[in-house]
Amino acid sequence: MNPYVLEMKGIEKSFGVPVLKGVDFSLEKGEIHALVGGNGAGKSTLMKIMTGVYTKDAGTILVNGTETVIHDTHDAKKNGIGMIFQELSLVQSMTVEENIFLGSEVVEKGLRKTGYMTERAQQVLDELGIDVSPKDVVGDLSVGMSQMVEIAKAMEKEAKILVLDEPTASLSDAETKYLFKMMRDLQKKGVSMIYISHRMNEIMEIADRISILRDGKIVHTGRIADITLEEIITHMMGESTGKKFDWVPRTYDKDGPDLLEVDHLKINDRIKDISFRLKKGEILGFAGLMGSGRTEILETLFGLRHQEGGTVRLKGEIVRAKNPGEAIRSGFALIPEDRRKQGLVLIHSVKENAVLPKIQQLRKHGFFIDEKKADQIVEDNVRKLNIVTDDIHKRINLLSGGNQQKVVIAKWMNMDPEVMMLDEPTAGVDVGAKAEIISLIRDYADQGKGVLFVSSELAELMAVCDRIITIFDGHITGEIDRKDIETEEVLQYAIQQK
Fold this sequence. Notes:
Layout (H helix, E strand, L loop, with lengths): L3 E12 L1 E12 L3 E6 L5 H8 L7 E6 L2 E2 L5 H6 L2 E4 L11 H5 L6 E2 L2 E2 L1 H15 L14 H14 L4 E5 L7 H16 L3 E5 L3 H7 L2 E6 L2 E7 L5 H9 L20 E9 L7 E6 L3 E6 L5 H8 L7 E6 L2 E2 L5 H7 L1 E4 L3 H5 L6 H5 L4 H4 E2 L3 E2 L1 H14 L16 H13 L5 E5 L7 H16 L3 E5 L3 H7 L2 E6 L2 E7 L6 H8 L3
Parallel strand pairs: 3-10, 3-11, 6-9, 9-10, 15-22, 15-23, 18-21, 21-22
Antiparallel strand pairs: 1-2, 1-4, 4-5, 7-8, 11-12, 13-14, 13-16, 16-17, 19-20, 23-24
Helix pairs in contact: 4-5, 15-16
């Protein structure tokens, strides 16, 4: 008996240059199969061929042992294949029920069968253990609950093969545990899942098997129990990058004048007494649970939130930015948590995104942009930051997540800010890009600049930061020199102290 619900054999795809080069991939019934690879390895392309977004140039697809042609997403759904995208595809203004049946409303004699759809939506939600009402508006739900509704939408279509693309990128630890429970419940019902994530610890926890893509080819497939994290990274990168995640003690003038002074900063009634100092050349981390106030502090310094009280001084001068423009002119830059919504204009090119904050400085004769100078800046960014793109005029949404993030970093480095603020800068990027981003941050601080660094990944905080401030429920609860943190457990314990 054929154990595979899906087989992809000799899959090839080219967009001018080969992206997939004879890929063989198989999925067993009821398994959770991790698919990993570096930026541009071909993961997304392979999944888009499976789900009908792209068509293959060559190769064969078999569903339950039968050769199948998938021309479009309708064909994929007809074969029981559903995909949960990293960027949620739900319509925020519509209800849970309306989203579940969007594009497939049940109609009889020209009339929508709303009663049946409400009942069916409730049934699917109950089966999955999702505690929301079909009548709830999606925009009122948490990101985690919206993710669950995405899964309910796929399961209503009776999907037997589910592709989850970075499903935990915006989830809290509690929401991730809930998602994993749901995945295991679906697994018991015979649903097969392909799990794409850059979070290696999650892959080791949830997956049964793993396939590793590199340069458009599968370089390893095997049981997750038979491979180590170090071996996964070696397969992905062609060489171990582990040393780049090790903490490197840095030197900066700890006794010199403060670059940034924040005293009794009040943002709202919950976050109201934030005080800290930042030296030139220092990388200062903020560690705390989701919702602790880390992001709010950075956004207030960048003028995205109203500063209700307190004092902020940069190089001795009082700064009270009412908007991002004022913050940028004062010497702040912010790499936001959600690059696709806040950091990039997705329909614009690499070049347009990279020079966007610098447009005024690139004007000549008061109106025209100095295109030659702009090209030189962006080509320099591509070279120095190792941004993988065949053209600086390529639309940014066609780049991988890690390369998009490097463009966001390049954009703000071009402004030469005094204080670079990074909020979850490596979310949704592979280990290779993470190592490169950590290197960029260190290099920037080495120029005598200040860095404020927020991350939910403790290993990253420990790899990059000189000093770490812990925050709990809007209050600073401690401050630790990196040299005094021996293990992640020490930092985890400090974070949870009130």
